[in-house]
Amino acid sequence: MSGTENAPAISNQVIVRACHSHDDLKLCVDLQRQIWGYEGEDVVPASIFVVAQHTGGHAYCAFDRGKAVGFALAFSAEHGGEKFWHSHMVGVLPEYQNQGVGRLLKLHQRDQALRAGIPVIQWTFDPLEPRNAHFNIARLGAIVRRYIPDFYGGSSSPLHGSLPTDRLVAEWRLGSAHVNAALAGINVPKAGVDAIEIALPTRMRELKHSEGPEIQADLRRQFTDLFSSGYAVTGFRRGDRTCAYVLEPYED
Q: Is the peptide bond before 213 cis (omega within 30 degrees of 0)?
């Protein structure tokens, strides 16, 4: 168990803490089935959670008066000489979504990462999910510079349907002014004259099984072209009928 574990984060009745036992980890396994409908080999077993905890990563669980309602799993990683956590999974029960539990889990991750001297947390998310994009980019302040086609291969989750599991890679640079502003609710950065938008239907989940392949192929092309030209996703705009990823020229 990491030495950075401290007092649990609390929001109303929900408490986030590290998983302390095999029983805690079994709760995380069961949550995967309830949240995403995973079956068979897509379910990450408790043994992998154990490995994460003993190799510099972590497993956290969110409890509402003793009931497990969400979890987070992350691995220790390094790329290009930079150490970071790869947040492989963060999930919340459907009936607890949009109530701040996911944000609570991510903020607990951030707090523990900063205490451990980890400057960046990365994770992947489906570019066809506007709600997740808004949360990751607008609410948390993550930026995106990578698009990976069919990252996980096939999936048993009905949420993914038969589409390739294309993913954007979120970079959460924990101490940056960009992240601090987003967490404070400040809508930054203001899109400059060089900004480009990639639009997406707001009701994408309803269209996923009909127009999904065409929309996904178009997103894949646009993101790949713009990322190769030095652009990054720095914002996300929501609308009644369409939403949009906001991309701008970006340098570290």
A: no
Is the model's pTM score more than 0.85? yes
Ranges of CATH 3.40.630.30 domains, the chain: 1-102
Query: pLDDT at position 251, please?
Result: 80
How close are the terminal C-alpha atoms of the chain, in Å? 33
Q: Considering Cα of 145, then 151, then 152, then 155, what sign does the dihedral take?
A: positive
- Give the DSSP H/E element, type plus range, for residue 133: helix 130-133
H or E element: which one contains 143? Answer: strand 143-148
**Residue 65 region by backbone torsions, left for phi larger than 0, else alpha for psi between -120 and 50, else beta:** left
Instruction: Record the tokens describing residue 165, joined without a space.
Output: 């599991």
> How far apart (Å, rounded) are the C-alpha atoms in residues 94 and 158?
14
Nearest in space to 250 (alpha carbons), one of 143, 177, 114: 143
DSSP state for residue 118 in the 8-state scheme = -
Give the pair of three-digit tokens for residue 69. 């309602």
- Peptide linkage before 189 cis (omega within 30 of 0): yes
Please tell us whether the domain made up of 1-102 is placed in CATH 3.40.50.1820: no
Residue-wise pLDDT for 221-241, tens only, equals 999 999 999 999 999 999 999
C-alpha dihedral, 210 to 214 to 216 to 221, nearest 10°: 180
**Nearest 10 degrees: Cα torsion 142, 147, 152, 158:** 70
CA distance 122 to 77: 10
